[in-house]
Amino acid sequence: MTPSSSQAAVASGVRATPILSTAGVRVEFAGRGRRRAVATAVDGVNLDIAPGEIVALVGESGCGKTTLARTMLGLERPTSGVVRFAGQPLSYRSRALRGYRRSVQLVLQDPTGSLNPRHTVYEAIAEGVRIHRLDNEEARVADALARCGLRPPERFFQRYPHELSGGQRQRVVIAGALVLEPSVLVADEPVASLDASVRGEILSLLLRLRDELGLAALVVTHDLGLAWNIADRLAVMYLGRIVEVGTPEQVFADPRHPYTRALMSVLPESPIEPIVLAGEPPDPTRIPPGCRFHPRCPELASGAAAGAGVAERCTSVALPVLPAAGPAQGQVSCHLAQAVSRD
Amino acid sequence: MPLLELRDLTITYRTEGGPVPAVRGVNLSLEAGQTLGLAGESGCGKSTIAASVLRLLPLSAKVTGQILFNGEDVLTMNWGRLRAVRWAGASIVFQGALHSLNPVRKIGRQIGEPILLHEPDVSKEAAGRRVTDLLRSVGLPADRADSYPHELSGGQKQRVMIAMALACSPNLIIADEPTTALDVMIQAQVLNLIGGLVADRGIGMIMISHDLSVLSATCQRLAVMYAGRIVEEGPAHQVFTDARHPYAEALAWAFPIIGDVRTRMSPRGLPGDPPDPADVPSGCSFHPRCAVARPTCSTRDMELWPAGEGRRAACVRVLPDGHGESAAGPVEQENDQPEEAVS
Questions:
Q1: Quick one: CA torsion of B138, B144, B146, B150, rounded to 10 degrees?
Q2: What are the extents of the domains in chain B?
Q3: Residue A156, by phi and psi: left (phi above 0), alpha (psi -120 to 50) or beta?
Q4: Which of A226-240, A267-281, B104-118 has the weakest average pLDDT?
């Protein structure tokens, strides 16, 4: 699927069967320490990824975005809810998972940590081919390297990670994921540890792979610029829930959730007056009642929520989980935004 | 007299594989109360410069040139004077607060340590009161003095580092990537804090980062480094939005301005990798990666030429005779000029 057609699909609200989706996924971690409080890292998430679509999942550290990504990879079992791949619920039997992992591949943040320093580039990439017992090992490795811009591939076969630059290492990591011909890449902060000039190159590579191979991607990041650069859709996560979702154009032009607006306002060159939220990201063992954002919400603090007559709802009425496939104009989980749009 | 002046600063690391020049003739000056951003990618020499100002480089580094702090050369100071300048005259906020704090000592003691060492007539009680004030000025509750580093979040630890840097009221602060590992919201909090402290106390600051958008938002002037040299210098916002040197331009484009349609779905990177410091290309060291390089660029030595009001850039395109795209005319004339002495 080309970018224009996938964007058109998003815009018209007609969405293809998602390649990867979550329905009501909730992930809890057993408590440790004196309180033994259960941490709810993901608290009910519906998220669809269409074939060939790049979805950016943004939020602060501790908001549950990495846990959600790990759950979608089958590395974490949801406490409740279901992850579906091509319409089929994920099976957690080891053989089924092995097949699944060929289709949904992971790219991590730090390429130096993801590569074994004593394996050559060839061995690093061929490992997946061997595990999945595929034929034509060398041709597959060469093809994956070439696709990731390491040309001619043979020149890189016998190199070790320390002989490569940071950007080249991340290309090797992506090639290692591609060699299994997956249909989805899950990338956790794929450019956060790279140099500025290399960043654009790696993001261009992800876009090109989507165009050439129809690869879908879930990109987990706290970098809103990355979402603007490559994502078809953007989901903003706060304390285990998606609080706003839409195309980057919609969300950035008109952020409707106060949290999204605050995140955008603190970017350099932002046209919005900076709204710096005080305090740290909240504790997933103690999710506030009502709207989970209300203790930090600038709209509630300024009285804007009271003015619209929703202040009481903000502190007491829980918001429903956003549906995965909704109206094309994007969705928001906020009492105030809903009150305003009803007027 | 400038607060800090670097004159023809050259730093070469002696390694087993021969000398590696990290900084190659840098001239910079900073007035009291001014803020300067120093931008560049890993390996360009920016952190080496930061460490050289307080003579914190390893013995393998050979430093020539002058580092004038309040007119006094740091490189020729005796140990006693150097100790007095460290902390009390100038201090550094290092990147990665996680690794810079002692994990087995309480925060309060770590902040108080330089006060007790540098001001022997201050009593323990008075130092404790100053620690409380410092914690408050960086937005941390005073009882945090009794915490250990692991009890704090990343943003809080970075604030502790800033409080330590301010402990002896220096008039110069060097902040080396102070927000690299932090989330957008915490980054905004820390940058706000640094900006406010610098303005309130009238101290000079050098902030180092590879993110031009952050530097443009926090600093008055901006210097961009490539392969051990400054390639562009000028008012921060002008350099960020209208760079004269192609490398500075690429770096500015790496972090998109959200809402700028030119960067939507088209991340821009810079092909190629930064040069090996041991083997820097001849002429303009950027020419192998430069999209607008001319034949003369591979041989001619660059210097920082005037490039508009208060601006300098090391690119032949800023020369009066360098505006035309035809390279034929000026080449001979340029080659006749005496070569700049560089090593």
A1: -100
A2: 1-89+168-282, 106-162
A3: alpha
A4: A267-281
Q: Which residue among A60, A248, A271 sits closest to B183, beta carbon to beta carbon? A: A60
Instruction: Examine residue A251 and state whether it is found in any structural domain, yes or no.
Output: no
> pLDDT (tens digit, 9 = 90+) per residue, B287-304?
999 999 999 999 998 999
Q: Show the tokens assigned to B320.
A: 């009066």
Judge if A198 and A336 occupy the same domain: no
**Token duo for residue A289:** 């009642």
Q: In the structure, what pLDDT confidence band is assigned to residue B199 with cuts at 50, 70 and 90?
A: confident
* Same-domain check for residues A272 and A227: no
Domain with A303, as residue range(s), is: 257-342
Size of interface A-B (CB pairs under 8 A): 118
Q: Total domain count for chain A? A: 2
3-state per-residue secondary structure call for B103-145:
CCCCHHHHHHHHHHHHCCCCCHHHHHHHHHHHHHHCCCCHHHH
> Domain boundary at A238, A269, A302, which?
A238
pLDDT band at A293 (very low <50, low <70, confident <90, very high): very high
| Residue of B41, B183, B258 with shortest CB distance to A267 | B258
Do A230 and A272 fall within a single domain? Answer: no
- Asked if pLDDT for residue B324 goes beyond 80, the answer is no
User: Which of A187, A210, A238 finishes a domain?
Assistant: A238
Count of residues in chain A: 343
ipTM over 0.90: no
- How far off is chain B from A71, nearest CA to CA, in Å? 22
User: 3-state class of A283 per DSSP?
Assistant: coil
3-state percent helix, strand, coil for chain A, nearest multiple of 5:
40, 20, 40
Flag whether pLDDT at B193 surpasses 70: yes
Angstrom distance (rounded) from CA A209 to CA A166: 20
pLDDT of residue B172: 94
Q: Which residue of B has its CA nearest to A199?
A: B269
Amino acid at residue number B49: I
- Using CB atoms, which residue from B153, B258, B266 is nearest to A225? B258
Q: Is residue A308 part of a domain?
A: yes
Percentage of chain B beyond pLDDT 70 is: 92
Q: For residues A111 and A7, state if they share a domain.
A: yes
Q: Please tell me the number of Cα atoms within 13 Å of B206 on its side-chain side.
A: 26
Shared domain for A77 and A32, answered yes or no, is: yes
CA distance B157 to A16: 46
- The yes-or-no verdict on residue B338 having pLDDT over 50 is no
Instruction: Report CB contact under 8 Å: A207, B265.
Output: yes
pLDDT tens, A210-249? Answer: 999 999 999 999 889 899 999 999 999 999 999 999 999 9
Cβ atoms of residues B232 and B239 within 8 Å = yes
Quickly state the pLDDT bin for B132 (edges 50, 70, 90).
very high
Q: Does B84 touch chain A (CB under 8 A)?
A: no
Instruction: State pTM to two decimals.
Output: 0.85
pLDDT tens digits, one per residue of B231-257:
999 999 999 999 999 999 999 988 888
B148 in reach of chain A (CB within 8 A): no
**pLDDT of A124 above 90:** yes
Residues A284 and A318 in one domain: yes
Mean pLDDT of A156-180: 92
A229 with A321, same domain: the answer is no
**Domain B1-89+168-282, CATH:** 3.40.50.300
